[in-house]
Amino acid sequence: MPQTGYIYVPAPSAENLEIGLNAGLWGWRSSALDRADARQVVRGLARGDFLVLGHRGPNSRVAPGGWANAELQRVVVTQITRPLFQATDQVWLDDTYPERIGIDVLSEDCNVSGLSLGADAMEALRLSANKQGAVVAFEGSGTVAHLAAELSSVQDSSGLGNAPHEGDRSMSTVTQVLVRREQRKIRKALIGTRPTASCTFCGRTLPSRLIGMTHIKRHSEASRQERLSLNNIVSACLMGCDELFKHGYIYVTVDGTVAASPCSSATIDLRRITDALIGRTVTDFGTHRAEFFRWHREHTAGITA
Q1: Is 211 in contact with 235 (CB distance < 8 Å)?
Q2: Least packed by Cβ within 10 Å: which of 38, 112, 168, 235?
């Protein structure tokens, strides 16, 4: 059964938190894991388990359950990509923190209430705060599922657009919900509440619910900063362009025009569809997106020339 670990990150560690999230790492001093059963708990966390980081809450020196209705200024849900290992390269500025785990950020939220996170999760974070940031772990992912459901219920559920990229089909249901929530935030930033939007590739203007938000560089391959960058996101219609681009049947050339990859000749009908897009200039093409489109050409469409 998967596990979920909880770590409280105090206010003075805000910079370390940001560095760790960008690097896809969390770390401890060896002396911190030498206390009690701290190392055993961390060793029990495996690839695919969840790790919830809570930042800036109230005074933790309260009775058990005292955080049930509290608020955390920031909650970051991550998934473990590499179990406990040791490394000495300098990542954080103030110390080495050689005892490390690899993490992948799934969701970030501000001003999260205990009602959204759940009483058990809030108690785990309170205990972690009183243990100088040690991991408190529970079996299962129920509290993360609860958080995903609670936060999703207050979001605008209109036309989300595309699901996670094809490289992410193995995602658990909870992970997919969290990733889609992050995509919804990006969608809101790009389209807002406009009733219509245009496709980057075919140029058609359609109801917004028929326009998806697509990562140029595959979500599973992108860093946290790349996933959050609007330069790595294009609008693609759900009438076909989204899937054609996502699977590499079409790509964007160095001069910003649509081209068809060799795999678009798989069937006559597919070739007819892609031929209709060849030569179109994509909207909002520029140097800010060139590197992402290059990655897509080489790694998704298989074009190296």
Answers
A1: yes
A2: 168
